[in-house]
Design goal:
Order of helices and strands: HEHEHEHEEHHHEHHH
CATH class of the domain at 2-149: Alpha Beta
Strand content: 5-15%
Strand order of the largest sheet: 3-5-4-6
């Protein structure tokens, strides 16, 4: 799945380099091996401190601008990536995304940020959600940073094209079975047309909420701040 995503990202014209930033955990050794086979740079850092990992990765590769793409999005669209990067550069923003608020399907998420802004976040962020999800420290401080959002019409944020659950993986496999053999470089338009023709495919992963991991982190934040688990925490 990761190799499919890397192949798709490689078609983005706005990216100078692709680096897979994984953890030092033994379970992630196969990811480093895969990167070696694909001749893609791999950086390994802290498992739980993803913000620190991404910041250290950016420093290691001396990057001025960082495009953050999560590794659970095998339908990533290079055209969407290029649009968000272009608007970020032209708008002179500190941080740009297409998810605040989202109008693209879940799984096409793109975040772009200046290196110095990422460094500030890595130094100052304290909450578990800020360390785990990389960018909350930035996006929650619109009074301090220049934030930009890239939207599309019609709003298709109800569609789930990411892979967090087994049913997500089943849907993505079905999409690849339908589109990949005939058109390896299929785009989001092709995916949406397929789903419009076969609406029953949407039922495969229906009912899974967006950003459930972020909601869990909010409970961890409350525990961090109070020293007690919230009543609704499991």
């Amino acid at each position: 799945m990761l190799s499919r995503q890397i192949d798709r990202i490689g078609h983005a014209q706005s990216l100078d380099r692709i680096v897979v930033a994984t953890s030092t955990a033994l379970d992630d050794d196969p990811i480093e091996t895969l990167c070696g086979h694909m001749k893609i740079d791999c950086f390994r850092g802290e498992l739980d401190d993803v913000l620190g990992r991404v910041d250290s990765c950016a420093a290691a590769f001396d990057s001025d601008q960082i495009v953050r793409l999560t590794g659970d999005c095998p339908l990533a669209d290079p055209d969407v990536i290029d649009r968000v990067v272009r608007d970020h550069i032209e708008g002179g923003a500190d941080y740009t995304s297409n998810v605040r608020p989202p109008t693209w399907p879940d799984g096409l998420d793109v975040e772009v940020m200046r290196r110095d802004i990422l460094r500030i976040a890595a130094v100052e962020a304290r909450l578990p959600s800020e360390r785990e999800h990389v960018t909350p420290f930035i996006v929650n401080r619109g009074d301090r940073f220049t934030l930009l959002n890239v939207e599309t019409t019609p709003d298709r944020s109800d569609l789930r094209l990411t892979v967090d659950e087994p049913h997500d993986l089943e849907l993505v496999r079905r999409i690849y079975e339908e589109l990949f053999p005939a058109k390896p470089d299929f785009n989001t338009g092709d995916v949406l047309a397929l789903l419009d023709r076969n609406p029953r495919l949407l039922g495969i992963n229906a009912g899974i909420g967006r950003n459930e991991g972020a909601q869990l982190s909010q409970c961890q934040d409350a525990e961090f701040l109070t020293g007690e688990k919230p009543n609704n925490a499991s």
